UniProtKB/TrEMBL annotation:
The keyword Nucleotide-binding is assigned to this record: no
Protein name: Mutator family transposase
Single annotated GO MF: DNA binding
Keywords: DNA recombination, DNA-binding, Transposable element, Transposition
InterPro entries per UniProt: Transposase_mutator (IPR001207)
NCBIfam families (alphabetical): transpos_IS256 (NF033543)
Organism name: Marinomonas transparens
Amino acid sequence: MDTLKLNSKQIQVAIDQLTVQPDGLNKLMEMALNSLMKAERSTYLEAAQSGNKANGYRNVSGFGIGDSLALQVPRDRLGLFKPMLLNIMKDQSDTLNELCFDLYAKGLTTRDIESITHRIYGQQLSKSQVSRITTSLCDAMASFRERTLADYYPIVYLDATFVKTKRERVSSEAYYIVLAVLPDMTREVIGIYNAPTESAGCWNDICLDLKKRGLQQVDLFVADNLTELDSAIERHFDSAIQKCVLHLKRSILRKTKKQHRSELVEDLATIFQLDNREDTRESLYLRAQHTSEKWYKRYPDLIKLSDPEFMSYYATYLEFEYEIRNMIYTTNWIERLNKAFKRTLKIRNSMPSVESVLTLLSKVAIDINSSTYQYPVSRLSKSHLFN
C-alpha cells in the first residue's frame, strides 16, 4: 500500500473523527504509542551494530482512560531494544501497586480493590494479582515490626487493643502496641504484637523481643493495669512504672452506686492533684488513705487505696517535672493511637487472619510515625525529665 500524504489539517480531521467514537480516545492512544515505539526501534536499529534487525512484536497491556490499552512492543533479533515507553508503563504499574497498598491498608478487601482499580485504570486485576501486591505489603510491614530499635527511650507506653480475627473461627484477639517517646520528645510506634488473650507470658515475650531488637534502657513505662505487665517489666528493665490514673478512677466508679459517684469523683480528684506543683508521694498516700477509710465499709475493694505498694504505681508521675506530668499520668496517647487503628479496621466486621491485622496496624503506625509523631510534644530535654 502506498504511503498516504496528508497535510496537518487532514490529519486533525481524521483524529477528530476517531476521538468522537466510543472508546476512540483509547484507540488513538494505542495507535500513537505503537507508532512511537515502532519509530524508536527503527532509529535504534539504524544506529545499532550490523546483524541486528526487527523481530516482530509482543503484546502488553497499558493503562488507558477507563479501559486498558492493547500495546505492541517492538522486538529486535538480539533482544537488546527496550522502548523508553516501557519505563513509563513501569511507573504506572508502581503507582498501581502503591494504590493497592494504600487501599488495603485502609481496610478494603481484595474485591473492593479490584473494583476500584478497574474503574480508575480500566485494568481488571485478578484476585491473585491483588494477593501478590498485598503479600508484598505484608512483607514490608513485617520488616517494619522487626526493625532495629534505639537502645534508649525516655518513656514507653504499652497497651492492648482487641480485634475480631479469624483462626478456626472468629473471636476477639489481643494486639499489643508499644509507643515510645524519643529523647527529642517526638514519638514512634516501636512494637506491634499479637496474642489470642492477654497473659503474663505474652508480656514477657514482648519485653524479650524489644531487648532483642536493641532496646536497653527506658526511664518510664506507662500502662493500664494489664495482667502481670509490671512484673514482666521489672524482670527485664530497671525502669519506673506509671499505671494509668484515669483507668483506676473509671474502675472504681464502675463499681459505685450512682448516688455516691459525684462525691467519690471529688475525693479521687483530691488524691491526684495534677495542678499541685509541690505535691509528693507521701502526701498522695495520706490523701488516698483518708479516702479509703471514708469509703471502704461501703466498698471493701477501696481498701487498696490505703496500700502504699499498690498506690506507688499510680504516683510515679510525681517523680517527673511538673510540665510533663499531664503526658504521663494516663495512657491517653496510646488510646488515641488505638482509635486510629479502629477507624481503619471498622470497615470490616472481622479480619481474615492475624497477619492481615498486623499488616494494617503497621501501615497506620508508619503513616502516623511520618506525620503526627515527627513533631515534638514538649520542649523539655532528656536532662529535665526527672526532678
